[in-house]
């Protein structure tokens, strides 16, 4: 009431599509596969999974892979990929992403901060603008895979990434969870979100699925699946369970050190679980 | 082209009316004049409404999944175990509200009356409010952008009939965005005791937590202290301790030493914590003698969260003619110490572990 814009907004004129959507559609038309990594819950291993999915896909040197981090407040990808302190360069063709290997590129707001401890204290609209720039202004080149790591929730970042990619083909979302009901509760909301915005769900990954004591080999369920874990949720919702990854201190260690866990301890149960998930993800969606 | 820019910086932003995106917007002159930045009248209303709340504590973390809601819930339970205290727990995680489940209140509904919304009561002296209570189905997703979330938070603070509280604990989602700016903004005409920051030991967490600490400093929110969760796991079979989230960069201990913040305590991983949360029961009641429960209790009872009004008993070395305060393993800024203990300004502080003393008169 009283806003000079009122009549304009009520007429629907403000709801005309953002021209950037078509620009992004054109720019990303050469990207063969786009995968979003989502979870309603924080701290379940989205960034860990995104990073290792990227490493695994890029292990085929004939594939061009890119990892885009749209977690604006808590960008973990630079650390996990061993790229802390790297900077992004601008050229005539746009921003150049940071390369881990010849065929593995990464973009994150982490690369745009002057200090690693700088807080990005932005409200929704500014975050949306950044995500738009990441999609429209980064010179990705021709990609086989674009993986998008997201923050937890069903808010600005998630609506924006789906909206800005709406004139491209998105293969779908991989949903990450941990076994306990407090996580699954939030993850079911994320699944509802995907259904509402018509984003296909490639499948669900259950992280932190048990811990094998290195001393006595006894398995503990540190996050007990009191309501049946991801297995029951997937059965109830008719979704593929791509796999279950056990807790392994070497995962967190590798992430802190910026190394691929799949290379550091390739024969560990956790690494084997990851590889089998990545292969099944490949078969399911591609 | 549309007349309202897609990159509208927002009517409250510093760029309102001045950004290049504002060219051509019919609102431009209004925004540029500053009329849209007049303070929200709700802030004063909230200030009046919450003036009878003695203590307000925010539970924050830059990182998700570190145990904010778990800590908030158990802090509320612990404070409410004193039946003379009125305690309330407000959940401002709009997208992922875990508090109803953790407090065993799933499925409860909120009622409206003449005096506002009534919160849901766990016990006579423990009230809870969360968007979880407003959903028709527990699986309903709340897919809202920032402004709508901010509006909900405003309503929680202004329209809930909390009554006279001793403690209001606010559980937040991870990050440094709308919810965090809003809660600080809407509470800006009240006194907030400060924030408890939750982390886990690994650097990937600490990196985000340092950003949250920067946020607190920027908005001038005092930091009560830091809690490190998931700090080791003792195998129930062989009692061997594993660091599942290894403190590769020194964990919360080093971060607190670097940033001169109190480390309130470290809580080990215990499957019974997650189990209790799923079942909606207080872990402190279910397994009160477990190492994790003891760690929680010691944190909750610490001088920082429940400052006592009496001076602690300390031995006075004969060489020292002023009051000596002895604190284990913790360094504090002088102002915070004075505020908590109401001691005179000329005093000597001894850091026990290094046996040095420093004259820190202000």
From TrEMBL, chain A:
Its recorded name reads NUBP iron-sulfur cluster assembly factor 1, cytosolic
| UniProt organism field | Sphaeramia orbicularis
Localization per Swiss-Prot or TrEMBL: Cytoplasm; Nucleus
SMART domains with a match to the protein in the record: AAA
Bound cofactor: record note: Binds 4 [4Fe-4S] clusters per heterotetramer. Contains two stable clusters in the N-termini of NUBP1 and two labile, bridging clusters between subunits of the NUBP1-NUBP2 heterotetramer.
Q: A single GO molecular function, which one?
A: 4 iron, 4 sulfur cluster binding
The UniProt record lists the keyword S-adenosyl-L-methionine: no
- Keyword annotations for this protein? 4Fe-4S, ATP-binding, Cytoplasm, Iron, Iron-sulfur, Metal-binding, Nucleotide-binding
* Names of required cofactors: [4Fe-4S] cluster
Keyword Cytoplasm appears in the UniProt entry: yes
Family annotation (InterPro entries): AAA+_ATPase (IPR003593), Mrp-like_CS (IPR000808), Mrp/NBP35_ATP-bd (IPR019591), NUBP1/Nbp35 (IPR028601), P-loop_NTPase (IPR027417), YlxH/NBP35 (IPR033756)
Its GO biological process annotations read: iron-sulfur cluster assembly
| Amino acids binding ATP | 40-47
Q: Which family does it belong to?
A: Belongs to the Mrp/NBP35 ATP-binding proteins family. NUBP1/NBP35 subfamily.
Residues binding [4Fe-4S] cluster are: 213, 216
What does the record note on quaternary structure? Heterotetramer of 2 NUBP1 and 2 NUBP2 chains.
Ranges for domain AAA+ ATPase come to: 32-203
**What GO cellular-component annotations does this UniProt entry give?**
cytosol; nucleus
Q: What does this protein do?
A: Component of the cytosolic iron-sulfur (Fe/S) protein assembly (CIA) machinery. Required for maturation of extramitochondrial Fe-S proteins. The NUBP1-NUBP2 heterotetramer forms a Fe-S scaffold complex, mediating the de novo assembly of an Fe-S cluster and its transfer to target apoproteins. Implicated in the regulation of centrosome duplication. Negatively regulates cilium formation and structure.
TrEMBL record, chain B:
Tell me the cofactor note: Binds 4 [4Fe-4S] clusters per heterotetramer. Contains two stable clusters in the N-termini of NUBP1 and two labile, bridging clusters between subunits of the NUBP1-NUBP2 heterotetramer.
Give binding positions for ATP.
62-69
List the CDD domains: Mrp_NBP35 (cd02037)
Which GO cellular component terms are attached?
A: cytosol; nucleus
* Entry keywords, A to Z: 4Fe-4S, ATP-binding, Cytoplasm, Iron, Iron-sulfur, Metal-binding, Nucleotide-binding
Record carries keyword Lyase: no
Instruction: Keyword check for Cytoplasm, yes or no.
Output: yes
Enumerate composition-biased segments (Polar residues).
10-23
* Molecular function via GO: 4 iron, 4 sulfur cluster binding; ATP binding; ATP-dependent FeS chaperone activity; metal ion binding
Q: Which GO terms describe its biological process?
A: iron-sulfur cluster assembly
Q: Which residues form the AAA+ ATPase domain?
A: 54-225
The places in or outside the cell where this protein is found are: Cytoplasm; Nucleus
Superkingdom of origin: Eukaryota
Chain intervals for the UniProt region annotation (Disordered): 1-23
- Sites where the protein binds [4Fe-4S] cluster 1: 8, 22, 25, 31
Q: What does the protein in this record do?
A: Component of the cytosolic iron-sulfur (Fe/S) protein assembly (CIA) machinery. Required for maturation of extramitochondrial Fe-S proteins. The NUBP1-NUBP2 heterotetramer forms a Fe-S scaffold complex, mediating the de novo assembly of an Fe-S cluster and its transfer to target apoproteins. Implicated in the regulation of centrosome duplication. Negatively regulates cilium formation and structure.
Q: Which family does it belong to?
A: Belongs to the Mrp/NBP35 ATP-binding proteins family. NUBP1/NBP35 subfamily.
Q: What is this protein called?
A: NUBP iron-sulfur cluster assembly factor 1, cytosolic
**What organism is listed for this UniProt entry?**
Sphaeramia orbicularis (orbiculate cardinalfish)
**Gene name for this UniProt entry:** NUBP1
């Amino acid at each position: 009431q009283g806003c000079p814009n009122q009549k304009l907004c009520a007429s629907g004129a403000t709801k005309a599509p953002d021209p950037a959507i078509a620009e992004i559609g054109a720019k990303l038309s050469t990207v063969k596969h786009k995968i979003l990594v989502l979870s309603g819950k924080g701290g379940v291993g989205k960034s860990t999974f995104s990073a290792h999915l990227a490493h695994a896909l890029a292990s085929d040197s004939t594939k061009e892979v890119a990892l885009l981090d749209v977690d604006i407040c808590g960008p973990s990808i630079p650390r996990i990929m061993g790229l802390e302190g790297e900077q992004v360069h601008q050229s005539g063709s746009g921003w150049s992403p940071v390369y881990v290997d010849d065929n593995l590129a990464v973009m994150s707001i982490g690369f745009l901060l002057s200090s690693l401890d700088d807080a990005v204290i932005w409200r929704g609209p500014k975050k949306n603008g950044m995500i738009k720039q990441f999609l429209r202004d980064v010179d990705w080149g021709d990609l086989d895979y674009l993986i998008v790591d997201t923050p937890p929730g069903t808010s600005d970042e998630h609506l924006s990434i789906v909206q800005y990619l709406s004139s491209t083909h998105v293969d779908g979302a991989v949903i990450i969870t941990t076994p306990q009901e407090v996580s699954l509760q939030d993850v079911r909301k994320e699944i509802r979100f995907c259904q509402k915005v018509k984003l296909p769900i490639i499948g669900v990954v259950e992280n932190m699925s048990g811990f094998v004591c290195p001393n006595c080999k006894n398995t503990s369920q540190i996050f007990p699946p009191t309501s049946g874990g991801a297995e029951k949720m997937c059965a109830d919702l008719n979704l593929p369970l791509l796999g279950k990854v056990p807790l392994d201190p070497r995962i967190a260690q590798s992430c802190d050190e910026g190394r691929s866990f799949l290379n550091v301890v390739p024969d560990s149960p956790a690494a084997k679980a990851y590889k089998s998930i990545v292969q099944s993800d490949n078969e399911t969606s591609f | 082209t549309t007349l309202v820019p897609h990159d509208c910086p927002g009517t409250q932003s510093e760029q309102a009316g001045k950004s290049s995106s504002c060219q051509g917007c019919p609102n431009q002159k209004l925004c540029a004049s500053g009329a849209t930045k007049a303070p929200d009248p709700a802030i004063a209303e909230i200030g009046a409404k919450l003036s009878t709340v003695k203590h307000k504590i925010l539970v924050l973390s830059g990182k998700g999944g570190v145990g904010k809601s778990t800590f908030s819930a158990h802090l509320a339970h612990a404070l409410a175990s004193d039946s003379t205290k009125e305690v309330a727990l407000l959940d401002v995680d709009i997208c992922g509200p875990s508090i109803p489940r953790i407090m065993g209140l799933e499925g409860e509904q909120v009622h409206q009356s003449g005096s506002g919304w009534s919160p849901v009561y766990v016990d006579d002296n423990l009230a809870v409010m969360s968007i979880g209570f407003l959903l028709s189905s527990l699986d309903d997703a709340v897919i809202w952008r920032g402004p709508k979330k901010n509006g909900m938070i405003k309503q929680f603070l202004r329209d809930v009939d909390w009554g006279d509280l001793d403690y209001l604990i606010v559980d937040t989602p991870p990050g440094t965005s709308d919810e965090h700016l809003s809660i600080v903004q809407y509470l800006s005409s009240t006194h907030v005791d400060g924030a408890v920051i939750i982390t886990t030991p690994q650097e990937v967490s600490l990196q985000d937590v340092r950003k949250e600490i920067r946020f607190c400093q920027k908005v001038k929110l005092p930091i009560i202290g830091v809690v490190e969760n998931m700090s080791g796991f003792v195998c129930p079979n062989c009692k061997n301790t594993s660091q599942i989230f290894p403190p590769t960069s020194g964990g919360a201990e080093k971060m607190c030493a670097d940033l001169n913040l109190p480390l309130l305590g470290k809580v080990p991983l215990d499957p019974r914590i997650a189990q209790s949360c799923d079942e909606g029961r207080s872990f402190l009641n279910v397994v009160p003698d477990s190492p994790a429960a003891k760690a929680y209790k010691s944190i909750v009872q610490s001088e920082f969260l429940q400052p006592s009004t009496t001076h602690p008993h300390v031995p006075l070395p004969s060489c020292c003619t002023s009051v000596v305060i002895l604190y284990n393993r913790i360094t504090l800024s002088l102002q915070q110490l004075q505020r908590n203990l109401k001691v005179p300004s000329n005093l000597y502080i001894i850091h026990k572990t290094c046996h040095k003393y420093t004259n820190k008169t202000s």
